[in-house]
Amino acid sequence: MSTGIEVTPERQEYLRRTRRHRIVVVGIQASLLLLFFLLWEEAARLRWIDPFITSQPSRIVRTIINLHQDGSLYLHIYVTLMETFVSFLLGAAGGTLTAVLLWWSHTLDEISEPYLVVLNALPKVALGPVLIVWLGNGSTAIIGMALLISIIVTIINLVSGFKEVDPDKIKLLKAFGASRRQVLTKVVLPASLPVMTSTLKVNVGLCLVGVIMGEFLVSRAGLGYLIVYGSQVFKLDLVMSSILILAVIAALMYFMVSFFEHVTRGHV
């Protein structure tokens, strides 16, 4: 005997339309990307653009193959990925815990608000030399730079999201004698999941930007180092190859966060 829920014909038709729409969207996205690379290659081949300055897809592929053959490609990708993941995890965890603390204490939230606004507006790259002096000439300073960029945005976004939770739900729980911890875990955090996942999506890009900025200032390996080195010796193929790899990494990390969002929605 079947225990599943019967799907109506209308629902089946809706699901089919949704799948078709998604296939069309993905197909157009892939076609536009392919068209862009084809036009880029053809424009460079016909000398509409200078391939020495703009490079071209075929030269980028050859550069990546050369990096693969000498073994340096995976070292630079690993260094940038490691620094990005560490800063992303620290920023997400530290920012969430700080936001919870500020939601818990209204007085502390009022005290910290102007400092958070100023820190968010402050150009973080200006603190790069200071971080190098404090944290040393290595990955720690790079992670510190990325963390400084991402954690402030995380705190501000999450605190705003916590404050926008329906106050009637909070009042209802308090009327039944719920503690502040129960209000946090049963209402505030579940209701703020969309804000949390959207903040994680933003942090993916911010952490990657922070890591590359740090590698520009101080690095002996990483994709940021390749970009700086390539520009110094006028190897623009190396620069464009590094940028393309960074774009792929950013897309993969974004899809990972989107998958997490899909999973959490299924359990809310």
Can you walk through the features of this model?
The protein has twelve helices and no strands. The chain has 268 residues and is mainly α. The protein has two domains: 1-49; 53-267, MetI-like fold. Helix 7 (139-163) packs antiparallel against helix 10.
What's the SSE blueprint?
Elements: H1 9-45, H2 51-54, H3 57-70, H4 72-104, H5 106-121, H6 128-135, H7 139-163, H8 167-175, H9 180-191, H10 193-217, H11 223-232, H12 236-267
Helix pairs in contact: 3-12, 4-5, 4-7, 4-10, 4-11, 5-7, 6-7, 7-10, 8-9, 10-11, 10-12, 11-12
> How many helices?
12
The 3D shape can be described as flat
Q: Tally of extended strands? A: 0
The sequence of SSEs as H and E is: HHHHHHHHHHHH
Helicity level:
over 70%
Level-2 CATH architecture of the largest domain: Orthogonal Bundle
Largest sheet: none
Tell me the number of structural domains: 2
Q: Can you identify the CATH superfamily of the largest domain? A: MetI-like
